[in-house]
Write a structure and sequence with these properties.
The complex is a heterodimer of chains A (169) and B (156). Chain A contains five helices and no strands. By secondary structure, chain A is mainly α. Chain B has a single domain, classed as CHAD domain. Chain B is built from six helices and no strands. In chain B, helix 1 packs antiparallel against helix 3, helix 1 runs antiparallel to helix 6 and helix 3 runs antiparallel to helix 4. The mean pLDDT of chain B is 92. Classes of the chains: A mainly alpha (169), B mainly alpha (156). Chains A and B meet through helix 1, helix 2, helix 3 and helix 4 of A and helix 1, helix 3, helix 4 and helix 5 of B.
């Protein structure tokens, strides 16, 4: 698992609200460092790392949730429903985390089944193990396709820029 | 699961260092509240909940590192990471066992026998994976980790 990127520019004496706008964009950028690898379904490690980065972003959004219930006092957009928009972005992040989690679960299951078969030293796979390997491969294929479709849809809609704009607003 | 909006006294206008302390202490207490259940091991939800709380705690600590003196902070951070790691080994096996138990009903009789053997193998691995977790808990208790952690983050 890749380490979390070091957060820079935090000002402990400044408000929680101001620091949310320093920290959260960096968490978003960490997620996108894995984007070049996601087009190859065999990049298990990178897909897993993207999932971990998304989870870190989700937890950080949760920590700073209260900062987005209240617009900055200098903002003229006081009518914007900040907490509603925050919840929409949060739901997308959660959805991405879940589908990447399903892909990772399949990778773990496949590894466990294969290791077990190897340890047992069987020339041919036991029926039950073989059946589950085939089924899990199929599930992973479908989940990976679903993930890519979601990602492409979000990219086409400019999700990253919208999220970053919102987080620094 | 505790959310930040529910943490007492948190306000967007408070300084980050004040909020950081409140968040870390709340997540830490939540994590430690699962310890007894995780040690017992009968109900797998305790290991899951404690691991999730430890991850939330370490994610918060990643963000708030600059609010605390580096040396003692790192010491506590590493211990939280160790808790997550040691619990992860147990939780991963719990997930696999639950998944294969669920899959069993969809298999033929012969296939079920194969998977039952596999589940028993995983259950043994789980028992082995619990040992480092229990050893770590014992060491943390002997070092009075909980009290010292709270003293550092509450009083700082």
């Amino acid at each position: 698992m890749a380490k979390a990127h070091k957060i820079i520019g935090v000002v402990p004496k400044q408000s929680y609200h101001e620091n949310a706008r320093i920290i959260l964009p960096q968490k978003v950028e960490e997620v996108y460092t894995w984007e070049p690898f996601i087009w190859d379904e065999t990049r298990h490690k990178e897909l897993h790392n993207m999932r971990i980065s998304i989870r870190r972003l989700r937890y950080t959004m949760d920590v700073f949730r209260a900062a987005y219930g209240f617009p900055k006092t200098s903002s003229k957009e006081v009518s914007v429903n900040y907490s509603g928009r925050f919840a929409e972005f949060f739901a997308v992040i959660l959805d991405l985390q879940e589908i990447l989690g399903d892909i990772h679960d399949s990778d773990v299951v496949l590894e466990a089944l294969t290791d077990y078969a190897d340890q047992a030293g069987r020339g041919t796979l036991a029926q039950g193990v073989a059946a589950l390997i085939d089924r899990t491969k199929e599930i992973r294929k479908v989940d990976y396709k679903t993930f890519l479709e979601k990602w492409e849809r979000l990219s086409a809609a400019g999700f990253k820029q919208e999220l970053l704009s919102f987080l620094v607003s | 699961m505790i959310t930040v909006s529910k943490i007492e006294k948190i306000s967007p206008d408070s300084t980050l260092e004040v909020c950081a302390r409140q968040v870390i202490v709340s997540y830490f207490r939540e994590m430690m509240s699962c310890e007894e259940g995780a040690k017992d091991g009968t109900d797998i939800r305790f290991v899951h909940d404690m691991r999730v709380a430890s991850r939330r705690l370490s994610a918060a600590m990643d963000n708030f590192a600059d609010c605390f003196p580096e040396k003692p902070f790192k010491k506590y951070y590493k211990k939280v990471k160790a808790i997550t790691r040691t619990m992860g080994a147990v939780r991963d096996l719990d997930v696999l066992i639950a998944r294969f138990q669920k899959e069993m009903v969809t298999l033929t009789g012969a296939e079920q026998a194969d998977i039952q053997g596999f589940i028993e193998h995983l259950q043994q691995e789980r028992e082995d994976a619990r040992k480092p977790m229990l050893t770590l808990f014992g060491k943390l208790e002997a070092a009075d980790f909980e009290t010292k952690f709270l003293e550092f983050f509450v009083s700082f």
